[in-house]
Specification:
single chain; alpha+beta; 3 domains; nine-stranded mixed sheet; three-stranded antiparallel sheet; 14 helices
Amino acid sequence: MTKIGLEIHVALNTKTKLFCKDSTESNSPNTSVCPICLGYPGSKPQLNKKAIDLAIKAALMLNCKVRTKFWFDRKIYFYPDLAKNFQITQHEATIGYDGHFSIRNKEIRIREIHLEEDPAKIVYTGSIENSKYVLLDYNRSGVPLIEIVTEPDFSNSNEVAIFLRKLIRYLEYLDLFNSSREGAIRCDVNVSIEGGERVEVKNVSGIENIKRAIDYEILRQTTLLNKGEKIKRETRHFDETLGITIGLRSKETEEDYGYIYEPDIPIIKINEEKIEKLKNEVGELPDQRKERLVLQYKINNELATAIVSERDLADLFEYCCKEINDYQFVAKWIGNYLKKSLNWNNIKFSQSKVTKEKFLEFLKDIKNNKINEREAKELIKTFVDSGEIVRVESSKEDIQKVISEFYDEISPSLNEKGINHIIGKILKKINYKADPKELKKLIEKIKEEKSK
């Protein structure tokens, strides 16, 4: 029997670090640093209140119990990514505990969720085995992390992948983390098979790499047991290039870290009213909202899934549905065409320049035939980037020139279907920069002339 547990590190979506005012966004190495995150003697941490709120929201999202009184601890270990030789984390009293998160028909238990600072980034000049020296980038040091610790309830790497994809979707929906930030989510994976000790694979990034690390580790441990060898408790590194795990050190125990209370940060107390307020801000989660949209607005499951991929997108849908009663029409334009345009530009709706009011106006123009559907599909491509619907009509000379190309196809007996087919070809030629009604009048005029 295989048991897999996860320790998931999620970088919270804050503008500043957990214990100082340095920015969490920086491109050049070691430019977003200060005495606090560099561990200078005498520097004192200053707690980021927003990080506390986001951590509590994450705990509520994972159905955890939230402590009304908690504190921070020092996790002491000597490693180059920790300038002060300890990490400020939570050990004795974590923010959240005893939760659960369901995937399909299986419930994954959440042991705890705690808040801590990220260490610096270690940059190897080669592989971890042959690097002659390492470089350190302290921009990441002090970025607020939540660590989500699951029970060993996973049986295989596919379950882990399903869990992580859903978790990421929920975290993004609540704007708790920014997936585009480097190292925004990383995993320590604990794998054990019956008859062997638990092995931890540290700091694996990317769902596919996490799957590969688990599958390799299961194979490695199974092979050792089949050969009659023992599996020792240890910490290993996953080499993404080779696709194998490499031994780093024997696995530490809690006693090895010498946890002590963090004296520079006072005990934090949260009242029930504050927790209730944050619970209301969490509100309806993606899967719950999707089910409601399907039932309330009678839209299909596929469109509903696309719409609830972003909270702002789902809000836009319900905002437009208050003014337009054709819910399937609204769902098609938001869940299909707008979503595709956002994906093409690699942005979220909140990052686009489109406002809810302007998008509603755009839909009304389509509905009232002020903009034809073919043209609208072209216009929406630039809408998310500019925030404006810019219609550029082709000149009469250009339109006449293109119509003349189809002159021979316009016969006196041409029916409605044939006219629409020619209109479609003309619009495509001129990038949909013409009014289909005007084109139809011109074609009807040619028909009339030919019938004389």
